[in-house]
Write a structure and sequence with these properties.
This protein has one domain: Plant lipid-transfer and hydrophobic proteins (Hydrophobic Seed Protein), CATH 1.10.110.10. The chain is an all-alpha fold and 120 residues long. The N terminus is likely disordered. Keywords: Lipid-binding, Signal, Transport. This is Non-specific lipid-transfer protein. Plant non-specific lipid-transfer proteins transfer phospholipids as well as galactolipids across membranes. May play a role in wax or cutin deposition in the cell walls of expanding epidermal cells and certain secretory tissues. It holds the Pfam family Tryp_alpha_amyl.
């Protein structure tokens, strides 16, 4: 019985070690954060506003700083696509140019065709 207890403890320790290894790969970013940081950009993306606002660019910079890890960038990519699909009259041409106009370099194209699984 003692051997069985040691084996159980060893298995639990190994499982915890594996979980700790993968915990660093988990995304901390949520779609709620993506949506709220980019909300000031919706007017521009739909043509209701002719100019990018300071608040929009601030949100883009904030999102860029939040999405530093590969899992976070993948989540941001998926959330951006979901957000864009839910906005009527969105101009993806305008949307794709927003990061550059705000002085932010995004490591993936902002487009419906982007494969978020391949984002690094």
């Amino acid at each position: 019985m003692a051997f069985s207890g040691k084996a159980t403890v060893a298995a639990a320790v190994m499982a915890a070690a594996v979980l700790m290894l993968f915990a660093g790969e988990a995304s901390a970013l949520t779609c709620g954060q993506v949506d709220s940081t980019l909300a000031p950009c919706v007017g521009y993306a739909t043509g209701r506003e002719k100019m990018l606002s300071q608040r929009c660019c601030g949100g883009v910079r904030s999102l860029n700083s939040l999405a530093r890890s590969t899992p976070d960038r993948k989540v941001a990519c998926e959330c951006l696509k979901t957000l864009a699909r839910g906005i009527k009259s969105i101009d993806m041409g305008k949307v794709s140019g927003v990061p550059g106009k705000c002085g932010v370099s995004v490591p993936f194209p902002i487009a419906f065709s982007t494969d978020c699984a391949k984002v690094h």
